[in-house]
Design goal:
With 428 residues, the chain is mostly beta strands. The protein folds into 2 domains: 166 residues, sav2460 like domains (Lipoxygenase-1); 196 residues, Sandwich (Lipoxygenase-1), CATH 2.60.60. It is built from 2 helices and 25 strands. It has a 7-stranded mixed β-sheet, with no helix packed on it. A hairpin with a 5-residue loop joins strand 9 and strand 10.
């Protein structure tokens, strides 16, 4: 059902899939879906805010499922089970925030409600006329006479997710200045006790210390840097479901590669083809590679539980190269090395601006950019994921490697990380 701003429609009290969608393209900002559970227009606590850094409500009524990119479109999805919403909750606000720009640069933005079991559409609102807004309340579920309805809202904010969240009572983490240290007065000289001291009076029991205030909500995503290169997936909530790994890129200049004669960059071809790959070692000792070369695309629901989604040549922010790791089988992994090779179109990563995003299905996204390439590299190790006591640790590598003459990029990265596999030539 197509809806106009301000209109409403009944929805079933059941599990619903709420899809925030938009059209991908060069320069299009990323967008994130979120939900707030309200009583009298405010959250009861910060726990009533569901978004990428807090992906599930304690009641089990709302869960952030994460992003998918298909056919030039991107979706970010919330699963809402209205039957599990606590009786005190009157409204569930459905919001969107832009990351890296305004909604005026996000084409074909919409919110759609579907029956989660049947997949049938229940309601859809295409937001009109976005300009400088960086956050939107696109819709809301609300109770009316014991039943649930959906209303198309379309209220914009220029203050981003932080402004929207604080408007509903969320405490947002902000940098705090250190309080001045009070001066300490010198201790008075000890008094000489009298010759006869009366017994001390019993003192009342000290009151218990006040409970520590809850930590404010952090809106920032996880960014790995040289100074802070690793993060635990468990601490980010990524303990199950799918882990999507995306590589996207853009050419900063029309140069790349290195001339063997002059040691200078050479022209980049228009048919640049980068391949996202993964070396894996499982807990049973088996090893292998997932890559487009040789059609070794892997498998998601059987070993190696890693699947390469496709072979992209555009590098577009919302498509690029993607592979998926099945975290439901995280105990099967010993280590995974995600790397990228240049298949054709250039002889180096020079002048190529690339970034990597690891998006757990139930957790905060992990992002990092590659450093500028200053060597004639054909292969770059991106991230190393290791199983440490049942916890998967993501380590930013961003390491450019230079193959020796006659040595393949795959064999080069194998040697650098001690995988110990046998390699034979392959083609796509």
């Amino acid at each position: 059902m197509q809806m106009l701003k301000g209109s409403n429609t009944p929805v079933p009290t059941a599990a619903l899939r709420v899809e925030l969608g938009w059209r991908a393209g060069a320069g299009v900002p990323d967008a994130d879906a979120s939900a707030l559970l309200l009583v009298s227009g405010k959250v009861r606590s910060d726990a009533d805010f569901v978004f990428y850094n807090q992906p599930a409500h304690s009641s089990g009524a709302i869960r952030h499922e994460g992003k998918r990119a298909t056919d030039g479109r991107v979706t970010d999805t919330l699963l809402v089970d209205l039957a599990r919403v606590e009786p005190a909750i009157e409204t569930v606000v459905l919001a969107a925030s832009a990351d890296g720009g305004t909604f005026g640069h996000v084409p074909d933005l919409y919110i759609e409600v579907r029956d989660a079991a049947q997949g049938t559409p229940v309601a859809r609102f295409d937001n009109p006329g976005a300009t400088t807004e960086t956050a939107f309340v696109l819709g809301e579920f609300y109770r009316r006479q014991g039943a649930w309805k959906f209303r198309a809202v379309g209220q914009g904010y220029s203050s981003g997710l932080e402004g929207l969240a604080t408007d509903y009572g969320i405490t947002v983490d902000e940098p705090q200045q250190a309080a001045p240290v009070p001066a300490v007065a010198p201790a008075p000289p000890a008094a000489t006790p009298p010759a006869s001291t009366p017994p001390p009076m019993p003192q009342p029991a000290a009151p218990p210390p006040p409970a520590a205030p809850p930590e404010p909500v952090r809106l920032t995503k996880v960014t790995l840097t040289k100074a802070a290169p690793s993060v635990s997936l468990t601490k980010q909530g990524g303990t199950s479901g799918a882990l999507h790994v995306n590589l996207n890129w853009e050419v900063r200049k029309q140069f790349s590669g290195w001339s063997s004669k002059f040691g200078r960059p050479t022209a980049m071809h228009s048919d640049l083809d980068l391949d996202l790959c993964a070396l894996y070692e499982l807990s049973d000792g088996s090893k292998g590679v997932v890559q487009a070369l040789g059609n070794s695309f892997g498998a998601l629901h059987q070993p190696p539980y890693i699947h390469l989604d496709g072979d992209d040549r555009t590098g577009a922010v919302s498509t690029g190269e993607n592979l998926t790791v099945n975290l439901d089988h995280k105990n099967a992994f010993r280590r995974i090395l995600v790397f990228v090779t240049i298949y054709e179109g250039a002889r180096s990563f020079a002048d190529l601006h690339a970034s990597v995003t690891l998006q757990p299905q139930y957790g905060a996204p992990i992002e990092f950019s590659l450093d500028e390439c200053t060597v004639p590299s054909l292969v770059c190790a991106l991230a190393l994921i290791t199983n440490t006591g049942g916890d998967l640790i993501v380590q930013r590598e961003a390491r450019y490697l230079v193959p020796d003459r006659g040595v393949s990029p795959q064999r080069t990265v194998d040697h650098a990380y001690g995988w110990g596999m046998n390699w034979t030539p392959g083609r796509k």
